Amino acid sequence: MNELSVDHLLGIKSLKLDDFKLIFETANKFKEVINRPIKKVPSLRDITIANLFFENSTRTKLSFELAEKRLSADILNFSATGSSVNKGETLEDTVNNILSMKVDIIVIRHPNSGAAYFLSKKVKSKIINAGDGTHEHPTQALLDCFSLNEKIGNLKGKNIAIVGDILHSRVALSNIYALNTLGAKVMVCGPMSLIPKHIESLGVIVEKNLVKALRWCDAVNMLRVQSERMDLNYFTTTREYSQLYRLDVNKLKLIDKEVTILHPGPINRGVEISSEVADSKNAIILDQVENGVAVRMAVIYLLASKFKNNLTK
Q: Which among 12, 114, 193, 299 would be 20 to 30 A from 129, CA to CA?
């Protein structure tokens, strides 16, 4: 397989196992590029990419921008703050205005679930979902699985726990889809108020006790509590949450085994993870950041290749 089975990256759910293999193989090649003295390739010199961020972002936005620059693409950055969106302009009008500037690929982050899918039906550009509401965050799941594959090998049959605010996390849903496709066993852990009803239908195990989850898993992905998405109190106090669900040295001592630790960021140190654990040798958080650029380079390159192929047909 030398091209993706999808025309857009709207979510992990639409990807096949061969798509994962192709993305990871391509990301490995680009990881070599970004670790050499000259970190740039001319692959996308004739491609224009618009980054549309209708929601605050630092890591994801910078990672996409760096990936695009490493590929030599022309970049157009858009932020909803200070734009005509605040004057009542619709998403479709905003995008059509940007498309009139001859944009080939759109990277979009939006607070509403389904925004990327909506765009894919309205415009001819390739769409990459950089996070839509509480729905999906596909490139985060791809880089998480790529990083895990580097650290613990083939994920088939591996036990992976996702801990924290599962209910509001688009990272959790994308990771569940990705890990299922790659053959891993998935457990979600957190307060029952933050575990979606019927999540077992996605093929995951539910566990309330963090220490039990840690004893079960080979790797654990610690999620941030998504306070900005909550309109209710889902637990009594932050202190109580931290006592039960913070990953710290004391809890790791109870399991007497090594566990690989991930975090999608930003980290609330002392809430969902202690600084000592976040900075430990078993944490691959900084590897995730590095791999994020390579994986996003791979996704952009592969979608751009489809765009070019369509033009020549």
A: 193
